[in-house]
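Listing S7. Sequence submitted for prediction.
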Amino acid sequence: MKPFLLISVCTFLLSCGSYPKKNNFKSLENFGAIVNPYFANSNQDYVYKAQIEVYNHNFGGLFIMKKIAAEQHRIVFTTEMGNTLFDFSFNHGDFKVNYILDDLNKKILINILKKDFKTLITEKLEPIETYKLDSETVKKASLDNKTYYYFENPETYKIIRVNNAKEKVRFLFTEINNNIAKRIDIVHSNIKLKITLKSIN
């Protein structure tokens, strides 16, 4: 039993460190914090046309993100007729469900959305390791004990959450202008969940 346990632990440790190797990242000296500016302006209302595909259900409407103060955000998803589908608050690390539609009120889904949205609103992280990939800089960080890789060229345009060297969630920011990503795609590889946001600001 002990040899099997030792082999399992070694395999786990090796697999955890293999994502950069699998993707041909080249190590660099750590430099510069990770900056995610896309929801950082408290004077800006971030309004997106949203499509959420989850468990073979489609929900469309408006996604509104507002930074109320430092480390405080409100996130509301409504139908285009104004009916609320969910309403979440982040306040200095605390997360609150103000409202959620019964069809979406599943603990596992709420926890996933919490992680996804916390990734979107976390503005600054210190990298654990820094890599080079062609002309891009890739920075590894930890958020709530999960491993993330931030791809910069020169601004952050992609975030990958990784577990056991496998991609679990991909955040893609495109059509970036004045620290606003006009389109954001969040795609989960291990569950049927995809979020597409298109700015209407």
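Caption to Listing S7: primary sequence and predicted structure tokens for the chain studied. The longest strand covers residues 57-69. The chain has a mean pLDDT of 90.
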